Amino acid sequence: MAGGRPPAILFAKKGKSVRINSVMDILIVILCFVLIIVGLIGIIIPFLPGIAFVWLGIFIYASKTGFETISLATLIVFSVITVLFFLLDFLAPLLGAKKYKSGKWGVVGAFLGTLLGVATLGPIGLILGPFLGALAGELISGKERSQAFSSAFGAVIGFLFGTLLKLIFGLVMFGFFVASFFR
Predict the structure, then answer these.
(1) What does each C-alpha distance from 132 to 56, 90, 125, 137, 139 come to in angstroms?
(2) How many CB atoms lie within 10 A of CB 13?
(3) Domains of the chain, residue spans
(4) Once rounded to an integer, what is the mean pLDDT over residues 83-92?
(5) 113 CB-side CA count, 13 A
(6) Which of 81, 109, 97, 83 is nearest to 168 (CA)?
């Protein structure tokens, strides 16, 4: 007990300890936790770049701990997967529309609808844009109304499936964050 008080150990790995030496260290851990929680909420309610917030919380935490509790290799894997999820935000509605037998015009409509929806309606455009785009594309190509709605529904299902995958990945990253306290 140097200085009359025991050292505060936050986490340890392979015999090495990362210590909290100041109030700033505690504030950084709290900031990381808040970023991760806000990110998880942002995944479900698409008003924030949710998965990016979760990753940022993990990145700050890993850097602060000198990559002792969350390794650099793990962070690189998380980074690559995070970038892939950004692509998934645009591709999932297209794949969903295609799965529901959308034609070329429906897929193009879902893609353009996603871009225009996000640009004009913000996060709500991630749901409405692909739906309306696939619907319009299918109707323009002469498809029956029921098939057009099926394609549009598929675009929304694709979006929801992509959201579910992002949520699972976000929870995995959160799990790494929590588990790092017990190593």
Answers:
(1) 33, 15, 10, 8, 10
(2) 15
(3) 2-182
(4) 85
(5) 30
(6) 81
Which range, 2-6, 98-102, 121-125, 150-154, has the best average confidence (pLDDT)? 150-154
3-state secondary structure 74-134: HHHHHHHHHHHHHHHHHHHHHHHHHHCCCCHHHHHHHHHHHHHHHHHHHHHHHHHHHHHHH
> Of 179, 181, 183, 169, which is closest to residue 54 (Cα–Cα)?
169
User: Model confidence over 63-85: pLDDT tens digits?
Assistant: 988 888 899 999 999 999 999 99
Q: How far apart are CA 182 and CA 13, in angstroms?
A: 9
Evaluate whether 131 touches 149 at the Cβ level (below 8 Å).
Answer: no
C-alpha angle with apex 55: 125 to 29, nearest 5 degrees? 125
DSSP strands (E only) in the chain: 9-13, 16-19
Helices (H) and strands (E) in the chain, counts: 6, 2
- Helix axis angle, 145-179 to 104-121, nearest 10°: 60
Q: Which residue has the tokens 């588990």?
A: 179
pTM score: 0.74
Q: What is the pLDDT of residues 123-176, one digit of tens each?
A: 788 789 889 999 999 999 999 999 899 988 988 888 888 889 999 999 999 999
Rounded distance, CA 150 to CA 51, Å? 29
Q: Which tokens go with 83?
A: 């970038």
> H or E stretch including 183?
none
DSSP 8-state symbol, 178: H
